[in-house]
Specification:
By secondary structure, the protein is mainly alpha-helical. The protein has one domain (10-233): Fumarate reductase/succinate dehydrogenase, transmembrane subunit (3 helical TM bundles of succinate and fumarate reductases). It has helices at residues 16-30, 33-44, 51-59, 64-89, 101-136, 142-151, 157-182, 189-233. Helix 5 (101-136) packs across helix 7. The longest helix has 45 residues, at 189-233. The structure holds protoporphyrin IX containing FE (HEM).
Length: 237
């Protein structure tokens, strides 16, 4: 994106080390991290098939080793991309005069969504992964997350998930286009325009998976709460 919309200023950095850092941060964003994110959202869609299916798809692992490996594969590229992204976040100047308004808006949205994604992922990783594992001694349970999604008892959970996943979907969908440009997969103006459709479709698919999964958790939570209320209201024998 920097080539056609706004300057990141990162061209100031020179030399093989700077080139390697730039390439690595960009590569990690799509190949492990983007693919992992799409797969994670797809797995979460199992919430539409109920608690057992969701736990089998998302939180059950064949062994503690497989679980640890999965966590490293997800977190290491995220951490490296975040360090790369934070450095680039502040190295830019909008270029509305020279480049298209639309392109500049996308450039700024990519950075704003990065900040939202950072805050969302910090909360999500802590609440859905670190807290249950470290303080409760087990993985996240469907009942807990589904009830929380429905009741938002511990904070604005539903709205945070809806907005957080909107940010992730935009950031990854739009990032695919700048990534393809950066790696020379699309060069001409026409190719970039055509790729725009791949980018928009990816954004919509990621958003549909995210919100579909949230809907599954929300309705699952609604059922659990209704059952609990019915059980509490039933006369004791
Ligand atoms: C699920 C997590 C994330 C995914 C899948 C992801 C994916 C991507 C992708 C595909 C790109 C485009 C790369 C390129 O143009 O070469 C990108 C760019 C960027 N990412 Fe992320 N990202 C994630 C999280 C974050 C976080 C937490 C930050 C930290 C603030 C961040 C900051 C940035 C920035 C600033 C850019 C724009 C770089 C530029 O255009 O110069 N990203 N991201």
């Amino acid at each position: 994106m920097s080539a056609t919309t706004a300057s990141t200023g990162t061209t100031m950095e020179k030399g093989p080390a700077a080139f390697f850092k730039t390439r690595l941060g960009s590569f990690l964003a799509v190949v492990p991290l983007g693919l992992w994110t799409a797969n994670h959202l797809w797995n979460n869609l199992a919430s539409l098939r109920g608690g057992a299916a969701w736990e089998a798809a998302v939180t059950h692992h064949s062994s503690p080793f497989a679980e640890a490996l999965g966590a490293i594969i997800a977190l290491a590229p995220l951490l490296l991309h975040t360090v790369w992204g934070l450095a680039r976040l502040f190295m830019w100047r909008p270029n509305v005069g020279s480049y298209s308004y639309y392109g500049n808006v996308k450039f700024i949205l990519q950075r704003l969504s990065a900040v939202g994604v950072l805050l969302f992922l910090a909360a999500h990783i802590y609440l859905a992964w670190i807290k249950p594992h470290v303080f409760e001694g087990h993985g996240e349970e469907f009942e807990d997350i589904a009830k929380e999604m429905f009741t938002s008892a511990d904070g604005p959970t539903l709205i945070v998930y809806l907005l957080g996943t909107l940010g992730v979907s935009y950031h990854l969908g739009n990032g695919l286009q700048t990534w393809a440009m950066g790696w020379g997969l699309v060069g001409s103006r026409e190719a970039v325009k055509k790729f725009e459709w791949i980018s928009i479709t990816s954004f919509l698919l990621l958003l549909a998976m995210s919100w579909g999964a949230i809907y599954g958790l929300y309705t699952g939570g609604r059922e659990i709460v209704a059952k609990e209320k019915a059980a509490a209201a039933a006369p004791a024998h």
